Sequence to fold (1433 residues):
Amino acid sequence: MTPWIALPAVLPLLAAAASVLVGRSRTAQRIIGLGTLTALLGLAVRLLIETDRNDVMTTQAGGWVAPLGITFVADRLSAIMLLVAIGMFLAVLVYAIGQGDEEARHVGFHPVYLTLVAGVCMAFLTGDLFNLFVAFEVLLVSSYVLLTLGGRLAQVRAGTTYVVISLLASITFLMSLGLLYRATGTVNLADLPAAMEALDPELRRVFLLLFLGVFGIKAAIFPLFFWLPDSYPNAPTAITAVFAGLLTKVGVYAMIRIQTTIGPDDTVVGTVLLVVAALTMVIGVFGAISQQEIKRILSFHAVSQIGYMVFGLGLLTVAGLAAAILYIAQYIVVKTTLFLTGGLVERASGTGHLDRVDGMLRTRPLLGMLFLLPALSLAGVPPLSGFVGKFALVDAGVSSKSWVLVGVSLAVSIMTLLSMNKIWAGAFMGEPTANAEATSPLPTAMVVATGVLVAVSIGIALGAGPIYAYAERAAETLLPLAGSSAP
Amino acid sequence: MKRSVIVDVTARLILPSALLFALHLLLSGHDRPGGGFVGGLVAGATIALIFVAGGMDDVRSVVPVRPWTILGGGLAVAASVATVPILLGNPVMDNWKLSMDLPLLGDAKISSALVFDIGVAAVVIGTIFMVFEAFGDEEPPEFRGEVRPAPGSGQRPEVES
Amino acid sequence: MIATLSLHLAIGIGILLAAPVLRRWAAPLAAVPSLASLAFALTIAPDVLDGEPWTATFTWVPGLDLSVDLFVDGLGLVMILLVSGIGLAIAAYSGSYFAPNATAARTAGLLVLFAGAMLGLVTAEHVVILYLFWELTSILSWLLIGQRHTDPAARAAATHALVLTGSGGLALLGGLVILAREAGTWSVVELLTDPPGGTAAGVGLGLVVLGIVTKSAQYPFHAWLPGAMVAPTPVSAYLHSATMVKAGIYLALRLAPAFVHLDAWQPVVLTIGLLTMVAGGLRAIRQDDLKLLLAFGTVSQLGFLFVLSGSGFEYATIAGVTLLIAHALFKATLFLVVGIVDHQAHTRDRHELLDLRLGTGWGPVRVCAVLTAASMAGVPLMAGFIAKEEAYAAFVYEGGAVGVIGLVGIVTGSVLTMAYSLRFAAVFWRQSDRDDADVTPPSWTFGAPVYVLTALTIAIGLVPAPIIGDLVDVASGDLLGREVAGELALWHGINTALVLSVLTIAAGVLLWRLTDPFVRLTGRAAPPIDGYRAFQIGLEGLFTLARVTTTRIQTGSLPRYIAIILMVVVGGPALVAVATTSLPDLADPLDVPVQLALAGLIAGAALATIFVPRRLGAVVVLGGVGYGMAGLFVAQGAPDLALTQFAIETLTIVAFVLVLRQLPARFSRSDDRAGQLRRMGAAAVVGVGAFVLVLAVSGTDPTTPASDLAVTQAVPEAEGRNIVNVILVDFRGLDTLGEIAVLLVAAVGVTTLARVGRRPPRTGVPPLPEIDPLDPATIDKDART
Fold:
């Protein structure tokens, strides 16, 4: 029992409460927010190291035995997700503080941001499906409020789509939990495999599909992704960055958990996932190349890239899962960075619309570099982190002889590159337009936060060896059976 | 808003007993039907009652603290019950009990569950209060065909700084 | 080598970052990595020439067997010398060509990075690392073409090059991974020593050839290369003639000996190569822009090189390596000459240049231009002649159908080459006699790289054996896996090849004389669309497909989204349940009369909600659902839950009333009957689906549900007799903590949203959105709002 692993789930809530109480002082709120996230970062690093030593660490809330009490579980997958997530939260908070806007104007920004952190951390650490539901609620409501914090009509409108569909997801999640509890008498993930043994394999599959669908809404897979491109682009930049970078990946994380828990060898469902993965990739990238606005392009890519992760999961092999984990980790960094850079472009030129901004390369070459590296990484250009992730996936796909998926993922890569080229040619090349000409310096905190993330993604590429090894060990813990049968 | 004498008097009569009932629900919840959530709801309902009787100004004069403080304080209490045990090396939200022999009152038990429940009740009350603060102030001008600054907007909670 | 690569990376990035400061110093700095690389090449040259390849390895991702394995054999040495030697010349030349500004400095930085990528490519021993550097050269080429980014043509050309070479690169990756899997090794050398066979390997090889063909601008994927000529001339000289486009040739040279035994190999290579050589030549003759003439000439020569390097014959391989060297030298020189002319005379047009006078001070450049063009044409005494002579001899020696077809093809191509070379050279020997047409001559330093490269061309042309003889022999020998002796020489005696050379030159001169009628004649036979146009059409098609698909799927209609999502998430599993599991029978309704009545109340209230026209009425009826639920809780013996549910329902109605003051009293009704039917259908599917799912689990019987534990532990362990409360605050207190956090956040959200409604309306925009606020069919909504 290692009680401290639950700390990331509750500490941000305490901090949120404190942040509410000091609401009149923005400085105090900033200190609380940055301090909490820094502390959590330290915890996450420790978790990363200790889970690698112990495989799995658990603690029972209140000391109550499972399945009565809530179990918190940390394995390598939780640890790596937690570390990346908290790193992003910290960087984005710095960026948001530099940006001002909602962060400076609204007393509620910091508390809600912290509850979002709590929801995400809880989702990564809980070993209990009902608690996962609660975590989803926390992050759903927080994200909804953050989305509409600016109080602009477009945001409220986008928020409506977001919240209605998220509530549907919650209702179906709750319904599924009720059914699951009725059938097995437990919602504890660790108990599920054994409890499921008593059920017919067909019923097990029904449950698996049900939960994959519920989490699939959150993850924005095809055909459940509609809400994402309609809502994310309207949020404040810093918020969109966290949403697109992180929140959908919580859904993918949950998909990985449920698949490896109750259907690690269900190849039928695996095949369904592969088909979904291919469609998600293609439809998402199609959306991206038909947009004219940076945040919208990036939002559709957020859909497309989910396909790659589901691809890795659907293979149901250690190699596929390890590739998916590596892909998720690097993607969160890259995508967050891209949105932050998009925000910098908007900040510098007043618009993110490609028809209205030109020539940023001449006026702000550094910004060009901050965009180019993550953009190329997203498209999987070597030797950046996206390439390592994509190569791992392709290699796993070839091992499993999933030729169609390999082909689709390569074709989608080139379309991704095409749409990145579109932003590059649209916003950065050309004669500077009047609005790009204005050269008031960008807030240092925004640029530094973005720059640090670019450096992190390069670091992931350079350190891909140990990171992949870690992801592989994580996958072996998740798929112990497949691991032993591998050559 | 026009005041109704009947409602006004009824509200004043019911108020103390309603609050006492809420407190009872809160404190006895561990053994009998009740608990922090429903206790908070009943207390929140009294806010609704005061609102119906006298509008937001009455509510503000009856409740001495701002909704933000109630909300934040409630969450702080509840989250502390969860967090502090970890810092002491115990499981998250570890339960504890204190029995005290108080003069006059006799045996009093305080448990972590009760403290937590108080936090829950505070958050529920704060949320209801907040909803009234947000929507209860006055009828929105645009549906009466005129646009004027919201009365009493200066006293509205600190949303913007 | 790793140090050399790192030096390229460091200096390249350093120049890019410090571009505004460096300006004039960027060019000299850019020369440093090339010098280092040349020095490295010279130190390992003795061993390599002795047949001892140089190797190094650097671990990257062991779990994926990714390591940066490098090796340098004879061909690698040739490529390093070319890449770095010409890189040095380009760096020197750039100093004079560009104005000393930040953009020029950035170009220099990108060129250094490119040189590094190219060196990595030609030394990679791991197939994935090979791809890695291959793709890097594509990306850097894209950035370099786009350097003149204010020019729309440059942007279009950059996109074109990126998409074509990028796609080719991915095909290459796919192909290489398949080949490597089949061969069971990632090592390039091992893969080629023991090449895999079978269908999968065939597919893999096909993909690799696709990569080669796009990179080396073979027909029908050649069009990006002439387009890339919008890049600054030093870039064109370096990337698009001397080095990058040779990457495909390099790979073809390596692959050919291993795969030439496949039936399809030679026909494919010969068809593509000869087509490219002849078609490129035909296009080159027609050009008036000297740079485009050279560009199409490059396409043609790349076809020639592909034929030679891919044919797998011993002498053709030797000829291929020789031509690789000769072509790099003469094509780089010619581009640099065009750059000088362009820079001084501000035109590259043949006609305009013929009206100008390259007089005093232009002598050396003019001589070099004509001599180097002669090398391109394959005139004796020049390096190009040595290579072409070797190529003729190879196909003469090989004989058979392949030999004859190949020979006819390359002779035809060479005749065209002779003709366009003359056309190019003519600009430099014919001169206008107008006095006012003098063009300022270039400085000595500007011309220096041209003079040096021309000297090399002549030297190799005169005495090839001492200069490159060993190098070519070792490189070819390493490729073929046996000792070879190319016996490169200016004079082999009178033989078939020499006769063919003489005939080629004569026919070329004749064709040049008849250029105009010939161009008119072939113009009529030209295909209706060129490669660039075809690419544009393809791209447009892709965009249209994407747009149409997206508009269809992302309609912006929330009811539609809801229907699809629910039908998939609930209906899907329910369908599987119906199809695969055996559903238990329904319970007898008479056993549960109270529940049945309450269920009826709930269902009735839910249905009524839909039909109530007023919002307030709907809220009240909806309350009926909640009270019905509370009743169910009472019936099941859970007074706590019922109490909470009653309180919640009541407060919800109050809250609704508050909010409804800000909304119209009645719902807006839709007249869309079909849509209503569709939505009813979807709702029915989801409702029945949920029912089926409940039914499916009703037959299960869990042994020890968690609630049993709760019942047994509540009093003794948690000291609470109200199990519900004990669960809420103790057993599962963390859930409650999360939920009250939700309440707090919701409170924040409520205040924010309330403000939206309170704001004075701007231009008649409704204060709060309707539930279905999204305008359908708007992908680009922000343009409207």
